[in-house]
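User: Hi! I'm working on a homework problem where we have to compare a predicted structure to a textbook description. Could you give me the structure for the chain below?
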Amino acid sequence: MATHHSRSAARLMMAPAVVLLLGWMLVPLTMTLYFSFKKYLPLRGGDLGWVGFDNYVRFVSSSAFWPSVLTTLTIVGGVLVITVVFGVLLAILLNQPMWGQGFVRILVIAPFFVMPTVSALVWKNMFMDPNYGLLAHLWEFFGAQPVEWLSQASLQSIVMIVSWQWLPFATLILLTAIQSLDSEQLEAAEMDGAPALMRFAFITLPHLGRAIAVVLLIQTIFLLSIFAEIFVTTGGAFGTKTLTYLIFQRVLESQNVGLGSAGGVYAIILANIVAIFLMRIVGKNLDK
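Assistant: Happy to help. Predicted structure tokens:
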């Protein structure tokens, strides 16, 4: 058992990292709160004094606020559904014995290490370009009219691009969970005559409950701040303006730091609401 002296020594050694982490988190948050109550226009007069909650009222009453929140949640929900469903299928497939299994797993996981801006550019120019993209040639091969993805199906295109990036992460977590499944349970169910679909529904899927909950939580935290893919592809047009992109417009394009800071506070509130909701789901799965 750890003694009082050893626990004190552990706390002392961890203190610098904890202080650094708290400073890394609290300083930007404090500055955001500070500027959210001020009218600060760097290129148009600088600090123009305190305005109270005026920035919050202006931001939430903007006609673009609620559509941006809805767009954010739509993208997050769409990506989560795709990555979890296809992640489970890919994890089951990769768990089967095959030739070159290690190489195949590396290929499946590789997209996760590609920078978001790079992957968005690849999808925009190599796949979704209506004239020279791979999908356009595929459509023409079957005699169909090429689709202008980023204007006609802009939101679906963003979901597709982001799902491609996050699918390897979900697959890796779910594959690890499947590998921890007791094979004797599956063998016993198979010997009892249970079909493959029943074995998946009553043995494999319940076993993946915790892993799915973790995937949902981690991906949601990162997906709520999606920005690079939208900036590179649509620039917020065609109904793809998320809350993060709206904040970017208010700060950089409008040069209104106070209004953008108020939007940042709203983004933090939204992220915490979603995180609390997901934590309750995760907690239920972890308690089972």
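For your comparison, note the following. The chain is about 75% helix and 5% strand. The mean pLDDT is 81. Good luck with the assignment!
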